[in-house]
Amino acid sequence: MSAASVTVLPRRIPPTILVVEGDVRIRYRVSDELRAWGFKVLEAGSAPEALTVLDAVQVDLLFLALDLPGTGGGWDVVHHIRERPTKMIVTSRETGPSDSPGPFVRKPYQAGEVAALAARSLNWPPPTQA
């Protein structure tokens, strides 16, 4: 069988995404949109909360705001999981860093844009229209 005839099928088990965002309104909006796409979503509002979740649960994708409140902000989380094979989408109000650990989405953004990017990153189909 040649490589050209191989078909990659979408996952059947919903991927787990950790949404790390300090602004609760943004975090809820993104989390709700990701749930509508069929993802299992966990939430954290700070770097310490995110590190606690990451140490306890395996996630398939991390959606991380680099501009979290606190000393190191989102970069603390990035440094903590550098050795793990975790896919990541990062966001900030600032311009994307040259050493971004994953695709960058600049704030403000549409929650649907984040969900579509997550779906592509995880080979997950878009939601069916009713």
TrEMBL record:
Domain Response regulatory, chain residue ranges per copy: 16-122
Entry-linked CDD domains: REC
Organism of this sequence: Microvirga lupini
One BP annotation, GO: phosphorelay signal transduction system
One Pfam family hit: Response_reg
Gene3D superfamilies in alphabetical order: 3.40.50.2300
SMART domains the UniProt entry points to: REC
Transmembrane feature ranges: none
Lineage: Bacteria, Pseudomonadati, Pseudomonadota, Alphaproteobacteria, Hyphomicrobiales
Name of the featured protein: CheY-like chemotaxis protein
